[in-house]
User: What shape does this take?
Amino acid sequence: MPSIDLTGKVAVVTGSGRGLGLAYAHALAAHGASVVVNDVDETVAEQAVKSITGAGGTAVAEVVAVGTTEAADRLVGRAVGEFGRLDVLVTNAGILRDKVLWKMTDDDFDAVISTHLKGTFTCARAAAVRMREQGEGGSLILVGSPAGQRGNFGQTNYAAAKAGIAAMARTWSMELSRANITVNAIVPVAATAMTETIPAFAPYIEAMKNGEPLPDFLRKGEGFGTPEDCAALVPFLASEAARGITGQAIGIGGDKVALWSHPQELRAAYADGGWTPETLVDAWPTSVGAELQSVGIPAPKLPEA
Assistant: This one.
């Protein structure tokens, strides 16, 4: 089995002070990459750096809230100033402001879009500029979510941002292909502060915190595990072994890895001279509308008592 060696590569991981981002940063460092850790909390960021260097890795912290061009330039500049280059960007930083549509404020919407969607855009743009200047390729790894793939109740802002991130990955994979820069979206599912509030998961996450393993129906059936279970995908996509993988949305969690499909036409019908509302009423049930698509993240299939 070939080993993944990222020695000499430099990575920026946004939102990597804790949770999934910290797991990604640890995995990159464990495979030889030098890592710029990012968080809005200086204490959390420095603790993350200490945990990486304590395990034998190389890391520095850059404390800034992503979203603006200035923040993106600081992150890329820190990587270049500290380590001389940039090869990998992981856009993990995110926040939640969950509310149903009629209760969501402008501030709720704008804050999530700014951090997730604009933060991914500004950081990826700054990274792409640097990687293209270096002329040696690189990897943009954008963090998506099942909510962005299927929608999720109460998450207008978050689902929209994550759907946009997947669309940007597909677009940038085309734009950056000639520069040998791969761009992929990953869709992690893990026990984090964001998921432990889901009632179906809560007792199992609590048991896991007490040292009990997650059951197979979660690890395999739901693809649900720890942040560390999701981390393997990041050094893989950052490595030479994944040079031919770009423009994809790849799910990972627990014992499961999966490839998400791109949106595509499923059925079509045709009417000579075009459609009218009346002909649509007549044709819809037996043609295009014969089997409509489901929405939302399916509830976990719990074992029978």
Notes: The longest strand covers residues 181-188.
